[in-house]
C-alpha cells in the first residue's frame, strides 16, 4: 500500500455521518430543541411503544406461565366471550371513525388549508 495516500471511508460510513451528523448539529446549535426532541422520543417510547410491545407479547404468550398460547384469539369465537370481544372491536372502530371525522371537520376552521 502506498504511503501518504489518504483513503476515503466506505460509503456506509459516509451515509451514517450525514444522517447522524445532522442530529448532532441540532443538539449543538439549539440545545433546548434537542432536549425537547429527546424528551418527546422518550415519552413516545415509554408510553406508546412499551405498552404496545407488552400487549402484543401477551396476545401470543400466557402471562402466568410464559408459554406460547393463542387463548385470547380463541375467545373471539367462544360463545361466552364472543359478544364482549366483538363489542370492544366495534367500539374501537367507532371511536377511530369519530376522531377522524371530527379532525376532518374542525381542521379547516383552525388552519389555513390550501
* Total DSSP helices: 4
* N- to C-terminal distance: 60 Å
Q: Helical residue percent?
A: over 70%
Oligomerization status of the protein chains: single chain
Main beta-sheet strand count, sense and barrel state? none
User: What is the C-alpha radius of gyration, as a whole number of Å?
Assistant: 25 Å
Low-confidence stretches: none
Order of helices and strands: HHHH
Structurally, the number of domains stands at: 2
Strand content: under 5%
Class of secondary structure makeup: mainly alpha
Mean pLDDT: 82
Basic shape? flat
In total, how many beta strands?
0
Please describe what this structure looks like.
- The chain is mostly helical.
- It folds into two domains: 10-70, no CATH class; 75-114.
- The chain is 72% helix and 0% strand.
- It contains four helices and no strands.
- It has helices at 11-29, 31-60, 71-74, 82-110.
- Helix 1 crosses helix 2.
- The longest helix is centred in the middle third of the chain and has 30 residues, at 31-60.
- It is flat, with a radius of gyration of 25 Å.
- The mean pLDDT is 82.
Describe the secondary structure blueprint for this structure.
Blueprint: H1 11-29, H2 31-60, H3 71-74, H4 82-110
Helix pairs in contact: 1-2
Question: In brief, what are we looking at here?
Answer:
It contains 4 helices and no strands. It has 114 residues and is an all-alpha fold.
Amino acid at each position: 500500500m502506498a504511503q501518504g495516500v489518504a483513503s476515503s471511508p466506505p460509503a456506509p460510513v459516509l451515509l451514517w455521518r450525514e444522517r447522524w451528523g445532522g442530529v448532532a448539529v441540532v443538539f449543538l446549535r439549539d440545545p433546548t430543541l434537542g432536549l425537547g426532541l429527546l424528551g418527546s422520543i422518550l415519552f413516545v417510547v415509554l408510553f406508546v411503544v412499551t405498552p404496545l410491545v407488552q400487549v402484543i407479547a401477551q396476545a401470543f404468550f400466557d402471562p402466568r406461565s410464559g408459554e406460547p398460547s393463542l387463548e385470547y384469539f380463541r375467545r373471539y369465537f367462544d360463545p361466552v366471550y364472543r359478544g364482549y370481544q366483538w363489542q370492544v372491536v366495534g367500539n374501537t372502530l367507532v371511536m377511530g371513525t369519530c376522531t377522524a371525522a371530527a379532525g376532518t371537520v374542525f381542521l379547516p376552521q383552525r388552519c389555513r388549508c390550501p
